[in-house]
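Dear support,

We are seeing what looks like truncated structure output for some complexes. This example has two components. We would appreciate it if you could run it in full and send us the complete token output so we can diff it against ours.
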Amino acid sequence: MDRDKMREIAKRLAKNNLEGEPDIKKVLWFPHEDEVRLVEVLPDVIPSDQVVAFHFGPDHAGGIPVPSAIALILPDEEGKIPVPQGWVDWKDTEEIDVLRVRKAV
Amino acid sequence: METWRTAHLKQARSDLAVFDAISNQPICQQLHYIQMATEKVAKAYLSAGDERPPQIHDVIVRFLRACRGNSFLQNACRMRREQFRAYVKSLLTTGEQIEDLVPAKNVDKPNPEYPWQENDKVIAPVDYPFVRLQLTQTKMARLIEFVRICVAIS
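Here is the complete output from our reference environment:
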């Protein structure tokens, strides 16, 4: 799937998650052609020495027609801890505008 | 052929089967199997299928928080969106307590597997009541129910 479509799906997934996690401060999209990969920054998760991502299958009812991966990190872990193998580097991520997405919720 | 994900789920299913079969045994043994099943379900979701999940233990609460917005799981629980979010939120404290049962994490704290020391007294898990994790409590029933659903739909 092309990058623009994946970005839209990433925003939809971020929107779904923001509804369930009001404490999310920031959402980073790690572009990939087949899987939507989000890292959500929260103030109250367990510290980790790596990005721990959970993988979910397509969620058609939720508007997510492709597999997805979600990881939760602390603010001071952003850009510092290693990402899973095959993920783009921190510098190649795109931030999803949480405020805009939240308003649309 | 099994993938890392299906193998973890298969083992979680087996852990649950043992849990069901030992209802007349001390609570530490039952909690041990619930802890193992819950952790394996969370670890199953750490793998997209083929790759080996990272070797970490603190996965249960992370998994619960990560799946709150997932409508596939929501539908499997036959709940509305808000209901599912509230439901998963209600599992977090119990999930954290189950996560804390891992003995490697808390060497001298209550755990269902190995004896620990408390004020110069050595305690065997089989003698400990685990009052915060009684299986008859609604919160425990909810968590076990959710683990069963995760295993069943996968």
